[in-house]
Design brief:
The chain is α/β, with parallel strands linked by helices. The relative contact order is 0.12. It is built from 15 helices and 17 strands. The protein has two domains: 5-288, UDP-N-acetylmuramoyl-L-alanine:D-glutamate ligase; 296-418, Mur ligase, C-terminal domain (Protein-Tyrosine Phosphatase, Chain A, Alpha-Beta Complex), CATH 3.90.190.
Length: 425
Amino acid sequence: MPKSLAEWLHHLETLHPLGIDLGLERVSHVAKRMGLLGNPIAERVVIVAGTNGKGSTLAIMDAVARAHGQRVGAYSSPHLLRYNERVRIDGQEVEDALLVDGFERVEQARLQAPEISLTYFEAGTLCALWCLANANLDLAVLEVGLGGRLDAVNIIDADVAVVTTIAQDHANFLGTDISQIGLEKAGVFRPLRPAVLGSQSLPSSVAETAIALAAPVYRLGLAFSHSADKEGRKPWCWHGLTASGETISIDALPDPGLPIDNAATALQALAMTGLTLIPKATQAALASVQLPGRMQWIGQWCLDVGHNPHAAAYLADRLPATPEGGRQWALIGMLNDKDADGVIAALAPRISDWVCVTLEGERGRPAAELAERITAQGGRVHHCADSPEAGVDYLAPLLNAQDRILATGSFFTVAALLAKPLPQA
């Protein structure tokens, strides 16, 4: 009997002794067997790497390109509620049946002699690429999972490569040297193909890598820019370059509810694919783009998957003032390989009251450990809960209508809350 999607996902967890095993040799061999490397998976391919902002940049490119009539496929990770979120075609999550077909193709290819072991992420990436390659796409936008140079997504040669931001994250795999992290992320660049740099504070190693490849460099603040202020809530203007080098400007752009640096970067990357950006289509796309778990408001609750100090600092800057008589709570749960002290320090100036929650699993962090770190920085912790859901239950009777609650620290924290009705005072 054929496996269901749930059965395939469980099977994938058993295929490899390591959950993360960076390197391209194994996944490239299987991709060749599947015929994924012989022809482009779409007319144009954009790969997005970086520490923060990958998901936002990809979502905006997806929305804007579709608003211009392009057929777009997108691959991102991780997911929040359904694995299907990782692969979207024309703005829709793919059905279970297509993913099952893809995993069957991956399994057939990897079992050919000699048999090749794949991680969960590697098998999922190959399945996604197979789905996209068979969708007759104008554009494929691919998000790098971890790093860049040795990430499974990097078996694809992108027509345009983007690096959004560089900060410390995944230290167990990428280390703590920002310059070296930049080199890893810049591994998605290709000779003579555009490299779009989405931050003004990237380490020099990123641009140097592109220059060494003779890849044209398009840097935020130089080749392209935007007029938005720090708050980013007013209409803004984007200035950039077309693929032929002509200047272009688009006015009256709405706040997409996502970082404007990422929106400007997305527009420049699309321009580099040869897409002619039309103001009305671009404005409409930015007004409608949605990305769950990124500054997502559900009544009094703000849900954000930020899990490193850079993301937490952005959150702290963007949180609106708490209404008079209210408290700004944080419900926080983090994995044990994340910089909890840095995240707490970034959020602390905006948070009056904390609830810590335990995340289970091999990488989970106990709520009590988070609480110790918060109190060490002078924060007030009201409760340690065994799970994000239990943290919500604790808060429910304490809230008044003026309170606001930020739920953050991990995809796992936000996913648990998205699956649960959130109490409103």
